[in-house]
Specification:
223 residues; alpha/beta
Length: 223
């Protein structure tokens, strides 16, 4: 089985030693740096924005995987693209004209992603599959790090994988929330390609080793 892409989530990092944390990411087998943007309106929390994006873009050698948990994300697409985002995820629930939004993200030279909250069915993506590069499945309710994984996510990922195949879509499946070594193999078996991991990486005794373990998790027992 192919190795998954790993995207450590900056939300769980130690901001008192941000340069050290980003240096660890650079040395590690991580494929992306996941960058959560929260506005206190779409989700009940506020995280960070452009000043920290500038720092991450300067110090991190990995592509930036930007997750916009904000209302009216179209207002900021240009700015995040200019700030160094390689992937921009917008929430299905926050976009009134999703086709237009995804088209604009691609026009800006970024990969286009759609994030789905745990309660949101996958069926709404059928009419925008041609504009999609990534689907980000939330396996917790967005807004806070350190939450417990929602088990039904495995079924949702499998259903999404089937829909993508049936429509000839090459969109990748990313999963975010409660991802750890004890559920990583099951997520990959269900159809996930990219694992976002926050607490299970940055709170580990050896974060670099935690990334390596996720990257090389044993999938053979699920074959």
């Amino acid at each position: 089985m192919p190795l998954p892409a790993i995207a450590p989530s900056l939300l769980a990092a130690d901001f008192a030693h941000l340069d050290r944390e980003l240096d660890m990411i650079n040395r590690s087998e991580a494929d992306y740096l996941h960058f959560d943007v929260m506005d206190g309106e779409f989700v009940p929390n506020i995280s960070f924005g452009f000043p920290l994006l500038d720092v991450a873009h300067k110090l991190c050698k990995k592509p930036l995987d930007v997750h916009l948990m904000i209302t009216q994300p179209d207002r900021y697409l240009d700015a995040f693209a200019k700030g160094g985002a390689a992937i921009i995820h917008v929430h299905y629930e926050a976009c009134q004209h999703l086709h237009r939004t995804l088209t604009r993200i691609r026009e800006l030279g970024c990969q286009a992603g759609v994030a789905l909250n745990p309660h949101t069915p996958i069926i709404g993506l059928e009419n925008v599959l041609e504009q999609l590069d990534v689907v980000l499945i939330m396996s917790v309710n967005p807004g806070f790090g350190g939450q417990s994984f929602i088990p039904h996510t495995l079924t949702k990922i499998a259903q999404l994988k089937q829909m993508l195949r049936a429509n000839g879509s090459s969109a990748r499946i990313e999963v975010d929330g409660g991802v750890a070594l004890d559920n990583a193999a099951a997520l990959l078996r269900a159809g996930a390609d990219t694992l976002v991991a926050g607490s299970s990486v940055f709170k580990a005794d050896n974060p670099e080793a935690a990334i390596r373990d996720l990257k090389h998790v044993d999938q053979t027992w699920l074959a």
